[in-house]
Amino acid sequence: MSRPRPEPVHLIKQRRDAALSALVDGVPYIRTMGITFDRRGDELTGVLNYDDKLIGNPFLPALHGGATAAFLETTAIIELSFQILWDEIESGRLEGGALTPETLPRLPKTIDFTVDYLRSGLPRDAYARARVNRSGRRYASVHVEAWQDNRSRLFAQATGHFLMPGRPG
Amino acid sequence: MATTSEDKARIARQFIEAIPFSKALRMHLDEIGEGLAAISMPYDAALVGDPRTGVIHGGAVSALMDTCGGAAVMSHADAPAGTATIDLRIDYMRPATPGQRIVARAECYHVTRSVAFVRAQAFDEDETRPVAAATGAFTIEQARTPERAP
């Protein structure tokens, strides 16, 4: 039996990137913070692009704990949302042109979020990756880690619980 | 010369008003002193987390709670200098009403030689139902040349 011919690579990438940017671009606060996402397959890396306005202690200087918390929370929500959408993206049920912030399913809502500050954030770019440890019908638990220069030297980590979005139909 | 609580409040106010991230979010220090602080933040379209409803992003509320917690620590009589967040847990109880100012109130309720414990709540114009609650631990930064405790 012959398997169906794989789709051209540019179509697959286009559809995945369109879904990701529909999730990210419609949120004003993500733009305000200067957060962007790198994608390799289904793996997302959040990038907090450094800006002077993110500083919380001008004397050290160090990133504001609130900026770090917002970065971790955003990365957790986008990772969880992308994972919820992944099957629909891959099956082609979510089509490129149809993906706008208005037509996307609702985002998960944060129930609680606990940030663990391990060392002060330096005045430069930061990166974060989230891992969905449990994703049920109603609740999800997500862990997220952030680093700057060395992947193994985390400057913050967090765990959050999320209420899964209701799916119409 | 011992610093009075008014001195502490003034130093904390100067420090908080100089924080770039708090300025970017247009935070305003409403009250400070004796381990208590209130900081508010106006509604702003740039802080929206859900464009369909116009509700503020949880991360903006976190930033307000974190700043307010730090301010409460700095104004506490037993906190000699600056502080940094060790951990902060936020419970999001309901979405903040779009268009309304958010105010956080934090209390530094216990201080040891090394750690300050804080609880905080955030409200919109309905002061009977909190939008979010937080608990956190903050560092107590020791002065450069610590005097030996007797």
UniProtKB/TrEMBL annotation, chain B:
Which Gene Ontology cellular component terms are annotated? cytosol
Q: Does the keyword Hydrolase apply?
A: yes
* One Pfam short name: 4HBT
InterPro entries in the cross-refs? HotDog_dom_sf (IPR029069), PAAI_dom (IPR003736), Thioestr_dom (IPR006683)
Reply yes or no: does the keyword Hydrolase apply. Answer: yes
Keyword annotations from UniProtKB, A to Z: Hydrolase
Q: Which residues form the Thioesterase domain?
A: 54-129
Record GO terms (molecular function): 1,4-dihydroxy-2-naphthoyl-CoA thioesterase activity
Q: Which PANTHER family match?
A: 1,4-DIHYDROXY-2-NAPHTHOYL-COA THIOESTERASE 1 (PTHR43240), BLR7284 PROTEIN (PTHR43240:SF7)
Question: This protein is called what?
Answer: PaaI family thioesterase
